[in-house]
Amino acid sequence: MAGRNTSPGRSVTSKALTILEAFTGERVELSMSEIARATGLPSSTVHRLIQDLVDWGGLERTPEGKYCVGVRLWEIAARSTRTYGLREAAMPFLQSLWEVTRAHILLAVLDGGEALLVEKITGTTDVPPVGRAGGRLPLHASAVGKVLLAHSSPDFQERVLSGPLIGYTPATIVTAETLRLELARVRRDGVATSEDELTPGSTSCAALATGPAEMGMAAISILGTTGARDLREMKILVQTAGRGLTHALAGPGPRQPISPRLPRAVPRTR
């Protein structure tokens, strides 16, 4: 990337990362002016850094003239030590859950103060909508978030409990004491639930899976329409999947290489 810096106090790298962070939530395609407004950077800086990111492959230009995240970033992210091997090991268990329930099946890890979805199998059309892989869910209001929070360090739990607990629905837990009791129940029962707490009409159930130290812990969840399936059955299914994934991650099986090292393609000349 270019080394020019027209805004003293911030590095070029910091500004480029700010541009990439503009693609959050539902922002999957943005125009140059929308990126400038979202980042607060000068238009000239945004124009230059966008071109650098496009040349590198971090951003791509759409046919409509907007910009979206490029597949080069996905390629880099796929090499994360926290998810490399996790998604591959989890997929048979996620697929089995989907075949039994036809609900949304989620795989999440703890990232910062949120649950990051690293894999999702979409349920049938009669289940409530949910975020896609790469999306985030709140720790206090989602089943995957609760199970990850319940098994995190006491210091981290206290930071979450002392912060604001946003009420997404009337059923959301918004007091620290109630959430503390809920986390104790999750640790005791080995499973977390969220009934209408994040989205009205949806119920999710999640269990923990643990892997090697570099991978940490993950949560597997079933999410469907409230009342459509027996909650006790959901708990049994998701706990069985969590135990199976934990066992699979503990195995000594060799990791497969992501891909061979390929030479840089050379354009043909006529």
From TrEMBL:
Residues 247-270 are annotated as: Disordered. It comes from the Bacteria. The keyword Zinc does not apply. It comes from Rhodococcus jostii. Residues 10-71 form the HTH iclR-type domain. This is IclR family transcriptional regulator. Keywords: DNA-binding, Transcription, Transcription regulation. Residues 72-251 form the IclR-ED domain. InterPro entries: GAF-like_dom_sf, HTH_MetabolicPath_Reg, Tscrpt_reg_IclR_C, Tscrpt_reg_IclR_N, WH-like_DNA-bd_sf, WH_DNA-bd_sf.
